[in-house]
Input
Amino acid sequence: MSQLTDTPDIERPSKEIIEALKTIGSATATGELSRLGIKNAFIQGPVPFTPGKVVVGPALTLQFMPKREDVYKVDEYSSPEVQLHRHVLYHTQEGDVVVVDARGELSAGVFGDMMLTYFKGKGGAGVIIDGCIRDYPKAKELGIGLWLKGVTPNFHTQTTIFPYAVNVPIACSGTLVMPGDIIIADDDGVVVCPKQLAPELAKKASAHNEWEEFSRLRLSQGGELRKYYPLSEEARGEYEAWRKENPIQH
Output
C-alpha cells in the first residue's frame, strides 16, 4: 500500500467561476449541462444530510475497493499513513469538495467527526459519499455539507471495503467524477460539471436564472404559463424592459 500514498493534487478553477456557479442551483445546472451534451450529470443515491446547505467546489476524489486481507491488513488506528482516506483530506484547500466512491456500502463509515473536523479546519466545503459516515450527531454540527447514503457506527475498513486511490477518476453511485470536476450540491441533490465546461455553464446558467426570476414573478401574478415558462418570444421584450429596470445582482 505504501506506493499509493504519494497522491496527486487537483487543478482548481478560478474563484470567479466558482462564485458564478454558486448562484445557479443543481436543477438549473443539470438542465444546462444536458443542453451542453452531458445528458445526466446527477449523482443519484447520496441525499442531503444537512438540509439547506449549498456547496459548489472542485472535487477531490477517493476510491474504495472490496477488502481482501492479503492486500489490506490495517485496522482502525494502526499505520495511519497508509490509510488513504486521510490522504485525500491532506489535499484540502478552501472550498474543496471530497467525493467518495464507497461502493454503496452501508456498513462502513468513510469518515468520522475527527476527520471531518480536520477537513472543516482546512477550509473544506462538503462531502459527497456513495456510502456512509459515522459520528453523525457531531459531524452535522460542523457546518460542512453532507450528501450521503446513510450513517453507521462502524469505522471505514471495519467490514468489506478499504480506501485504494486518491484523486483518480471514480464512479460515485454510477456517475463518473474526474478529479477537479466542479460539484454543485444542494437540497435537490448533487451534480457534476466537467471542469472544461464550467465557464460555459456559468454563462448559460446565469442567463437562465435571470429570465426565470422574471417568469416566476409574472406567474405569481397570474401570468400565462404558455407565455412565461419557458420565456416565449412574445414575452421577450417585456423581460428585457423589466431587466433594465431591475438589474440582477451577482
Summary: The chain has a mean pLDDT of 90. Residues 2-194 form a domain with the Glucose Oxidase; domain 1 fold (CATH 3.50.30.40).
